[in-house]
Amino acid sequence: EAKKETLGFQTEVKQLLHLMIHSLYSNREIFLRELISNASDAADKLRYEALHNSALLNSDPNLEIRVDFDKDAKTVTIADNGIGMNREDVIAHLGTIAKSGTADFLSTLTGDQKKDSQLIGQFGVGFYSAFIVADKVTVETRKAGSEEGVCWVSDGSGEFTVEPIDKEKRGTTIILHLKPEAEEFADGWRLRNIIRKYSDHISMPILMRKEEMPAGDDEEKDVKDATPEWETVNTAKALWTRSRSEITDDEYKEFYKHISHDHTDPLKWSHNRVEGKLEYNSLLYIPGKAPFDLYNRDMQKGLKLYVQRVFIMDQADEFLPMYLRFIKGVVDSNDLSLNVSREILQKDPAVDSMKTALTKRVLDMLEKLAKKEPEAYASFWKEFGQVLKEGPAEDYANRERIAKLLRFSSTESTGTDQDQSLEGYVSRMKEDQDKIYYITAETPKAAANSPHLEVFRKKGLEVLLLSDRVDEWLMSHLFEFDGNSFVDIGRGDLDLGKLDSEDEKKAQEEAAKENEDLVKRIKDVLGADVEEVRVTHRLTDSPACLVVGQNDMGMQMRRIMEAAGQ
Ligand code: ADP
Ligand code: MG
Question: CB of 38 closer than 6 A to ligand 1?
Answer without folding.
Answer: yes
